[in-house]
Amino acid sequence: MSSPLHKTLQPLFLGRQSYPLHSTLQKTNIYFGSKHKLFHQCAYNLSAIRKSRAAVYEKPGPPNEVLKIADISLSDDIPEGMALIRMMASPVNPSDLNQIEGLYPVKGQFSNRELVYIEEGADSQTPKNVSVAIGGNEGVGEILKVGETTEDSKNFEVGAWVLPNQSGKIGTWCTHAIVPTNDLVAVPNCNGVTPEQVSTIKVNPSTAYRMLKDFVDLSPGDYVIQNGANSGVGRAVIQLCREWGINTINIIRDRDNFDELSEELKSLGATMVIKDTDLKSSDVSVTLNNLEQPIKLGLNCVGGKQTLAMTKFLSRHGILVTYGGMSRQPVTLPTSFLIFKDIQAKGFWMTRWYKSHSEQERLEMWDHLLSLMRQGKLVSQPMTQINWSENGTPSELAEKLALGTGWGSKHMFVF
Ligand SMILES: NC(=O)c1ccc[n+]([C@@H]2O[C@H](COP(=O)([O-])OP(=O)(O)OC[C@H]3O[C@@H](n4cnc5c(N)ncnc54)[C@H](OP(=O)(O)O)[C@@H]3O)[C@@H](O)[C@H]2O)c1
User: Fold this and answer.
1) Atom of ligand 1 nearest to the CA of 352
2) Which of 11, 69, 214, 375 has the greatest number of C-beta atoms within 10 Å?
């Protein structure tokens, strides 16, 4: 069959290997199965997609020092078992920044890529071969084109929305990528949800969901206590608990607009919002020690003294689950908590859960979360969107990148 997509053999740099390219004659049902898909494909003018604008780094270090914007060359042929995706939205998570710093257990994937750095005063537009990793681990992309599928590779329809299968395999802060289809998973049903909503589903809402489901049996009316309650995970915990009839005690750091933030969290379903500085007050002690139902679960985003102060309110046999270490302080608990109250301290890592559970299980969880999003019962945390425009001077682009990858408020790249 002759196809307009057919191209001659060219070298393609992906990872450390140079793949010999095969013909891109595609399966009829992928490219020509419906008018819609053909139109869709033409709308993106695939032959014009020869590069991906990406945030890359050559070695780990502080994000504001090591990240640069580059145009990475893309082949116009897609090898067997690979797909060309267009990224739509990708959040910046604390773990992404830790990964760039080299402080996260999942390291960036460095590989040789043909690229041109976009920087002020760059004198050459000739691509050079550089070993870089692309930042970002989470995000949603759309399939634009699929290579020949093999027995071992997955097949996707053009137009399908996809997420990375595992952290660390695909850098998501880029406009396009050619990636193994086995590193992708299709979003179960993207009707009625936006790319921005879907792009965050794999980490924060899923973490909240698993921590509420997998450690203790929570009955309606039971309590969960958590710190970092205004975080992405914390807000998902509040909303899932509201949906399941569970009460939440939410600890946040004191701030000028405490009342405003407290009201915002209550509007999501928070039962109580408490300042970290009030945790030792007698009023709070009296209230939390006299609840009608037990505080069975503590969720720790922070570590240090704030965690100790929170854990003392856990009921006998309660479980403290640590999932974040924002204060960079260790979790220390008095011996008496362990001996006399039988408190158990555990950890949770979403990456480990994905590795040890089937794709079916994650799809069931995402289906549930997406359905809550569709009904407006699970709203995303406020994030500043940074439009990754192709236009802009090199210094404007560098400014956007620095803004998006700074610590503090939460950002999302949209492409
Ligand atoms: N284990 C897992 O699988 C998993 C999954 C998802 C996330 N996480 C971790 O969970 C944490 C939160 O992630 P996120 O995306 O939800 O973050 P986020 O939305 O950026 O929220 C960060 C939270 O941390 C608080 N915080 C920041 N610095 C702090 C400090 N020095 N002391 C006390 N609190 C501090 C912030 O409070 P303020 O508003 O007061 O600054 C905010 O509540 C991160 O550590 C992340 O790596 C882990």
Assistant:
1) 3
2) 69
